[in-house]
Amino acid sequence: MPSIFSSPVMRYGISLVNAAIIAVIAVTLLEGTIRWVALGIAVLEVIVTPQILKHAD
Fold first, then answer.
1. Reduced 3-state DSSP string for 2-38
2. Lesser CB count within 10 Å: N end or C end of the chain?
3. Confidence bin at 40 (pLDDT 50/70/90)
4. Count of domains in the chain?
5. Alpha-carbon distance 3 to 43, whole Å?
6. Dihedral (C-alpha) 26, 27, 29, 32: value to the nearest 10 degrees?
């Protein structure tokens, strides 16, 4: 039985949802430099997490 992480849609979907949550929190609750750091983390989430989940398969 294949893993749910074998589908690229699931891998990128998970990371996009996480990044969206981080971005909403950054824009609504944070200000200044820490907002930009949080948005950078959201971008890294979209790039790195699917690659890690690909290896988890």
1. CCHHHCHHHHHHHHHHHHHHHHHHHHHHCCCHHHHHH
2. N
3. very high
4. 1
5. 25
6. 80
CA–CA gap between residue 36 and residue 3 (Å, rounded) = 35
Residue 32 has pLDDT above 80, yes or no: yes
| Contacting residues for 19 by C-beta, under 8 A, at least 6 apart | 42, 43, 45, 46
Q: Is 15 in contact with 56 (CB distance < 8 Å)?
A: no
Phi-psi region of 7 (alpha: psi -120 to 50; beta: other; left: phi over 0): beta
Q: Which domain holds residue 27?
A: 4-56
Q: What is the pLDDT of residue 3?
A: 84
Chain-centroid distance of CA 38 in Å reads 11
